[in-house]
Design brief:
The protein is mainly α. The protein contains nine helices and no strands.
């Protein structure tokens, strides 16, 4: 468990930064192959990490999957009104943000480079049907595993070490760690993803389940399908782009 926690707090940030550097180097040579490679590499690493964390909570004495948030959300009658506000605000933000980005994208092909982390993420957006299907798979893996690790496991570790921690403090620490993990997106990207991590953690601790955070996370990540150019073909017109 200690090694997994160390990886989630430090290792993943370093590996993600190096991996994205490798992607950008490959992108300058062959854009499509670079995207396919990072989709495959990140999906595989997420699945392995998720299996490692889930396996630890199954095999280690005293632990169980429910402690990771793998349980149904509380009945509606028990849901705190604050949770409904957070979910509503997050959903509204996702919709409005997507619309704004779509409009900006229509007016300028470089619009995404002006948002936090956009310069690093824009080259990763899928360009054709083949890439979009793999991008959706990556988005699903990220939504499930990142919630499992940076909400489920990290919250468990924090509350285990500091059992009297306030929920706000737990959410802040979880969000901060989640932001640092996205170091490859730059300083503003770290700040924005940290705030997103805080909101998702708040939803988790209020609902008692990872279900809603996973759905919100997937909705945010899969928006890349809408923001990417639509070629309408299975592969780009030219295999190599410079």
């Amino acid at each position: 468990m200690s090694l997994l926690t160390l990886w989630a707090t430090v290792g993943e940030a370093v590996w993600g930064y190096i991996s994205h550097k490798r992607f950008m180097a490959a992108y300058s040579v062959d854009k499509r192959q670079a995207r396919l490679a990072i989709y495959r590499r990140w999906t595989t690493s997420l699945v392995l990490l998720g299996l490692s964390v889930a396996g630890s909570f199954v095999l280690l004495p005293g632990l169980r999957l429910e402690l990771l948030g793998l349980r149904p959300a509380y009945p509606v009658s028990r849901i705190d009104p604050a949770l409904l506000g957070i979910i509503g605000g997050a959903g509204f933000g996702i919709v409005v943000g997507t619309v704004v980005l779509l409009v900006a994208r229509r007016r300028s092909a470089n619009a995404l480079t002006y948002i936090p982390g956009g310069k690093q993420l824009e080259p990763m957006l899928p360009q054709c049907r083949d890439e979009r299907s793999r991008y959706v798979l990556l988005s699903l893996a990220a939504a499930i595993v990142e919630e499992l690790v940076w909400r489920g496991m990290i919250v468990f570790v924090i509350t285990y070490i500091f059992p009297r921690s306030e929920l706000l403090t737990v959410a802040c620490v979880s969000g901060a760690i989640f932001g640092v993990v996205h170091l490859y997106q730059g300083a503003l990207g770290v700040l924005v993803t940290g705030l997103i991590g805080f909101a998702l953690c708040a939803v988790y601790v209020y609902s008692g389940s990872l279900l809603i955070p996973v759905l919100l996370h997937f909705a945010m990540d899969v928006r890349g399908i809408l923001l990417s150019p639509k070629t309408g073909s299975a592969v780009p017109v030219t295999g190599r782009q410079h």
